[in-house]
Specification:
By secondary structure, the protein is an alpha+beta fold. The protein is built from nine helices and twelve strands. The strands form two sheets. Strands 1, 5, 6, 7, 8, 9, 10, 11 and 12 form a nine-stranded mixed β-sheet that branches. Strands 2-4-3 form a three-stranded antiparallel β-sheet, with no helix packed on it.
Length: 309
């Protein structure tokens, strides 16, 4: 039997993908945002327990995003910049996932998250055309769907609501909230919207602030046609807090029997030197292209998927 050698995507789709990439690069060129290229292989990777990295035989890692390298550039004096290129995540296979995918990531010096959301909105409109965009806090988003308060409800109350909607595991509060959030997205028919102000447990590398007596992560996500397209932060700048969060991730990894990830000392050194005030965002480019072309999955806009390499 002859092995299938043809691309997964129609050639016409790949040609249209190329046009979208040119549009995206022109979008940033007109704004004076510098394109950079950072390594796809690094000696370190993210400690985040929600992300599994691809480890190479020599102990290095394929990068899950350009974040660490871009922040080192910003600390060294690089102006607002972006990267458009491949990133890698272990085990992410599905209709809207591939272990290797294209990420568009950019950082804006001096921008607030609301200013960055406006720029994200303009980029999405460039590719998909204009549309109304709503905005919800995660607290209101979940209350509108499930009539639960993500800050006031007990773990038991949240579990009860989650189980009533198909959640069958018994994980941490953060996992339950993630499930409810995903379920709410699936149920909402609105075309485009931002969700902002997540619980502090999901802060990742975002700053944390207080709202109505509750600590919230100053981050946002943009949902388009039921898909997460963008994830942005008011970027954490405190090196001590960054070290503490990495150590917390390491403890959780031990508890969950995940692979141990060492802290990236070069990133910590850059943060100690001084990361300028900035907001950053990552966009799943393959998903955005698929939505633009009316494709049913990202396989229709990738030259070769995981099963073909």
């Amino acid at each position: 039997m002859t092995a299938r050698w043809q691309p997964s995507a129609p050639i016409e789709n790949l040609q249209q993908r190329s046009e979208i990439l040119w549009k995206v690069r022109e979008f940033f060129r007109q704004r004076g945002i510098c394109e950079v290229q950072t390594p796809v292989v690094g000696s370190h990777t993210v400690t985040d327990i929600n992300i599994e990295s691809v480890r190479l035989a020599n102990g290095n890692f394929l990068q899950t995003s350009a974040e660490y390298f871009l922040k080192r550039l910003l600390a060294a004096g690089m102006p607002s910049c972006y990267q458009l290129g491949p990133v890698f995540r272990e085990g992410e296979v599905g209709r809207w996932h591939n272990p290797e995918f294209t990420m568009l990531e950019w950082y804006r010096l001096g921008f607030s998250p609301s200013e960055l959301r406006q720029e994200v909105k303009e980029l999405i409109e460039l590719v998909l055309g204009p549309s109304d965009v709503s905005e919800y806090s995660l607290r209101d988003f979940l209350f509108n769907e499930f009539q639960v308060d993500c800050y006031e409800e007990t773990d038991q109350e949240l579990h009860k609501v989650a189980r009533a909607n198909g959640f069958s595991a018994d994980f941490r509060r953060a996992d339950v909230l993630d499930f409810l959030y995903s379920a709410a997205i699936e149920n909402r028919r609105e075309s485009r919207y931002f969700v902002v102000d997540f619980p502090s447990e999901s802060c990742a590398l975002a700053e944390v602030r207080e709202i109505d007596g509750h600590l919230v992560a100053d981050r946002f996500e943009m949902i388009v046609e039921g898909l997460e397209i963008a994830n942005g932060y008011n970027e954490l700048r405190d090196p001590i807090e960054l070290k503490n969060r990495m150590e917390h991730d390491q403890r959780l990894r031990r508890e969950l029997e995940r692979i141990h990830i060492e802290r990236d000392k070069r990133l910590l050194a850059a943060m100690e030197w001084g990361l300028p005030r900035c907001s950053g965002v990552a966009v799943g480019l393959d998903r955005l292209v698929a939505l633009s072309l009316g494709a049913n999955d990202i396989q229709q806009v990738l030259p070769f998927t995981q099963s073909q390499i």
